[in-house]
């Protein structure tokens, strides 16, 4: 729920004309720079009057029950109640609801302090700040008259009355459909003079703008750094992809190498088996060759013996033939013809 804002300020006789000129926008040379003269026609006046504020105050004070007593020259003749709310609250209201808000608040103040004492009520709708946000405010001017007819702002506005009045207004507005709650009870918050407030706010806005400028510069630097980081990240991603690609290639090469090693191992095993078989065949061939040599040797020996036998047989045969011829020759020599 939004907060109700109330402020009470007192004015002496010498300030009444200035107060009326400000509230009625009679003159445009006002220190409030948020006033938009072209919008002043939208302001609402809830109480009709014929005379000036000074004249109406004089007429009312002359009606008091103890009017024989002179009014002090420094007496507060007007208590102005400024009724407002959070700026965001008024942004939720239509123009008609804003007018209803001012009329309801005026009626509540009249009921509490007497309709005869409430002399002016203006709803200002022409105050707009540099951001285009409207700041409506109700200004109600009443003569600070107590119930026993005493003119005294101190007697009327003691601390208890200020507290009770705040609660009274919050409940009254809520009862009429305006969702506003009173501010913090017994708050030590003090109201500033409007000019002091605006000067303070202007300084605050300037400092805020300066800080916003610094913040914008910082944001730009951060954005620039962010872009650098993004570029760096893209570069890292590319490098990572390249590394992953190379790792994949390395894995493939490693797998191919492993397969080659396995094939080489199988080939080496086959070659070893082949060498073993060759060695076995070589060994068998050597043994076979040696057996052939041995057999050849035996054959040669056999051939030699056969040759020797044939030569002997031939010699023996030749010897026998020779002996036979010799014998025949001997026998022939003994024959007589």
TrEMBL record:
Residues 248-278, 313-337 are annotated as: Disordered. It comes from the Bacteria. One of its GO terms (biological process) is DNA recombination. GO terms for molecular function: DNA binding. It holds the Pfam family Mob_Pre. Keywords: Plasmid. Transmembrane segments: none annotated. CDD domains: MobM_relaxase (cd17242). Residues 257-278, 313-330 have a biased composition (Basic and acidic residues). InterPro entries: Mob_Pre (IPR001668). Belongs to the plasmid mobilization pre family. This is Mobilization protein. It comes from Oenococcus oeni (Leuconostoc oenos). The gene is mob.
């Amino acid at each position: 729920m939004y907060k109700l804002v109330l402020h009470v300020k007192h004015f002496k006789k010498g300030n009444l004309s200035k107060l009326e000129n400000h509230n009625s926008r009679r003159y445009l040379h006002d220190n409030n720079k948020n006033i938009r003269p072209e919008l002043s026609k939208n302001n609402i006046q809830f109480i009709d009057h014929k005379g000036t504020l000074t004249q109406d105050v004089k007429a009312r004070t002359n009606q008091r029950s103890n009017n024989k007593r002179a009014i002090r020259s420094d007496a507060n003749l007007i208590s102005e109640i400024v009724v407002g709310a959070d700026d965001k609250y008024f942004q939720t209201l239509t123009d008609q609801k804003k007018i209803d808000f001012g009329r309801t608040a005026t009626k509540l103040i009249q009921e509490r302090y007497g309709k005869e004492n409430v002399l002016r009520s203006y709803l200002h709708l022409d105050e707009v700040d540099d951001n285009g946000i409207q700041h409506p405010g109700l200004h109600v001017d009443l003569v600070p008259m107590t119930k026993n007819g005493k003119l005294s702002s101190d007697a009327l506005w003691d601390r208890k009355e200020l507290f009770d009045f705040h609660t009274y207004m919050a409940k009254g507005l809520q009862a009429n459909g305006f969702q506003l709650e009173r501010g913090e009870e017994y708050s030590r918050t003090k109201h500033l003079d409007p000019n002091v407030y605006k000067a303070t706010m202007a300084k605050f806005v300037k400092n805020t703008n300066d800080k916003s400028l610094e913040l914008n510069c910082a944001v730009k630097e951060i954005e620039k750094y962010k872009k650098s980081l993004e570029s760096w990240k893209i570069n890292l991603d590319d490098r990572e992809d390249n590394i992953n690609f190379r790792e994949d290639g390395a894995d493939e090469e490693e797998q191919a190498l492993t397969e080659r090693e396995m094939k080489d191992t199988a080939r080496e095993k086959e070659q070893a088996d082949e060498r073993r078989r060759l060695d076995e065949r070589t060994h068998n061939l050597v043994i076979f060759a040696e057996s052939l040599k041995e057999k050849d040797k035996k054959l040669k020996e056999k051939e030699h013996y056969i040759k020797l036998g044939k030569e002997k047989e031939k010699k023996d045969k030749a010897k026998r033939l020779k002996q036979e011829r010799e014998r025949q020759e001997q026998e022939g020599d003994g024959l007589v013809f």
